[in-house]
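SAMPLE LOG
Freezer: B-3
Tube label: C17
Construct: single chain, 200 aa
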Amino acid sequence: MKKLISIAIGALALASSYASAALLTTTMHVDNNYKAYISTSDSVQGTLFGSGDYWPTGFQNQVQLNPGQDYYLHIYAGDEGGLASLLGQFSLTFKDHVFANGTQSLLSNTTDWLGNTTGFNGAYGTVIDQGQNGVGPWGYQSDIDSSARWIWVGDADNVDAVYLTTKISAVANVPEPTSIALLGLGCLGMGAVLRRKAKA
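STRUCTURE (predicted):
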């Protein structure tokens, strides 16, 4: 009986950890402003979930993802003159989704990000690298991993609006919270039945 209760409690605890899964957190410095969208298509802008307009500040935004659904993180970045760039750090709270690099952590870089200057239209090319976190004129941003790269699309001195994208893929065969909770309740029920029989 005690063993069944322990299993049930463990299953319910696991269910609660899954309930907080698939939370996307973005932290960005963008010279000069940005809008972050989550979309289920690389050619559809999607739903706005965050923005910022002062590059020395690392703006943090979060959005919940649904299990089993692939997504695209779309970022519009705008400049108000002079050199432009984006520096970012991104994370997922659980393993039911992965970034383009196959993990739950992603930095701004030229490998896992694509972009263009025409919009979220499915036609993207490579982004340019403007240096590692710490490079001038922006300097080191302590809230972003030191390996992150400042990135942009095209001529960063003259292109004032860019559209960046990266894919977030759902991982198959990750148990859903409901299934785990039902398992826990089933174990509790079985334990109750066995206890009644033992008393009888």
